[in-house]
Amino acid sequence: MDRAAFTRRTLLLGTASGLSVFALAACTTAQPQPTPSVTGTPTPTLVPQPLSMRRTDWAGDAFARGSFSYPAVGATPEHRAALREPVSDRVFFAGEATATDEPGTVQGARESGLRAGAEVVALADDTERIAVIGAGMAGLSAARLLVDAGFDVIVIEARDRTGGRIDTVTDADWPFPIELGPSFIRSSATTDLDEQLTVLGAASVEFTTQAEVRTRAGAVVDLDPVGAEGMAAALAWAADQARDVSVERAIVDSGNGTLSTTVADTGVSPADWLDHDLATGLKVDTGAGPGEVSAWYAPGAPALSDSDASADSGTDSGTDATPPAPRLVLGGFRTLLDDLAADIDVVTSNVVTLVAYDDNGVSLRLGAGESMSVDRVIVTIPLGVLQDEALEFSPALPFAHRGAIAALGMGVLDKVWLRFEEPFWTTDAPLWTIVGGDPDFPVWVNLLPLTGEPVLMGVVAAENADRLASVTDEDFLVAALSALEPFLAAP
After folding, report:
1. Which of 169-183, 268-282, 293-307 has the lowest mean pLDDT?
2. Helical (H) or strand (E) element with 14
3. Hey, what domains does the chain have and what are their CATH numbers?
4. For the packed helices 137-148 and 106-123, what is the interaxial angle rounded to 10 degrees?
5. pLDDT at res. 296
6. Is 90 exceeded by the pLDDT of residue 321?
7. Which residues of 112-122 are buried (b: 16+ CB within 10 A; e: fewer)?
8. What's the DSSP call for residue 123?
9. DSSP 3-state percent helix, strand, coil across the chain (nearest 5)
10. Other CB atoms within 10 Å distance of the CB of residue 265
11. Where does the record locate the signal sequence feature (predicted)?
12. Which residue in 46, 218, 219, 481 has the most C-beta neighbors within 10 A?
């Protein structure tokens, strides 16, 4: 293998050309850009225009290709285990898709980075140079561990910023930092992320998972468990089948999809409640529709669950087991990332296009044509980018790795943040959901009782997110404001 000398100056010269970014981005479709503020003609809705809006498009992001991984039909926890296996003791993998516990979450990403870093420490000596591809939570966690252990580490990041799918926005349009990526920490006995944020001066608050549910007509209704019960029965039926099927197929074939469409006095039918459970639970937890998610390993399935719920899930699944309340980050995940990256050699705006490895080491090729040699590499790029084959491996990855990449799913959950001059709603509930009518934004977080600011965050997932990703900012805003009409205060 060619182990030609490569310097940070060479890398920075390549960055200045901009070619390394466009090498990957030029072959992707255009994506709507976040809009800091909203101006122009009023949209056709009774909800007032916001002062500011930010939206996301994670599927259209060339360096993400989705929001987080989920268990697709046929995927199992063994696929995640296969993906995190080192290759020839030279190429190591981290990222939420490889997490042993809580894949799809920030804490899962951190755990995976610490695990990969420890694997390198166990095999390498401290004279070796280690590259980490990706400066998200997994990459920076691995790099921090390695630097603290005395290794020479370089982190190569395709974006012009660190953080990956964690994207904290702090500017004059917003009274506090907003998170375009994950906003929540799922509480568990194995994570201390909330404590670390507190130490660093970034606030987080316990967040209720009990939503105020409204019909499209604006009536507040009690959550009817009939939908969640039908879902649980379908997943229990699927667990006894000889082969995995989709959640949708399990609902239909188990007979739990025949709920009545006759509306009750509330204006909501049993079938509406099943749709509500799918829209505010399964789709938000996985970023995928019921026709794509494994019934064996869906969130809440009785099988040994893959725990694929999103870190952004805050909905009430209606199941008997009540998970610990998540915590909402208000002081910015960026604080934790900046602390991890302190004194680490991070080079941004450089795309790695080839990882070539043999018994002697690893050679990396960058988008602008440069190459560099290291002893070992930790790859933390998202599953969606691996599935796009934007990064080439030579020789090709073992079949088990390629099979895992193909089997796992990459879900999509996008957000809209809206800041209003004053609240148009009167409810103090911090979590809202909508039943009936299939709204694009079925879940909303009300920041007013938590921050004193009239700010709302809505989520759109799965096929709804795919459809809205291609529309203009104006049409995106129309869809968001239309979904908020049930929460208008009575005149």
Report:
1. 293-307
2. helix 8-17
3. 8-28+62-166+334-410 (3.50.50.60)
4. 30
5. 97
6. no
7. bbbbbbebbbe
8. H
9. 30, 20, 50
10. 6
11. 1-25
12. 481
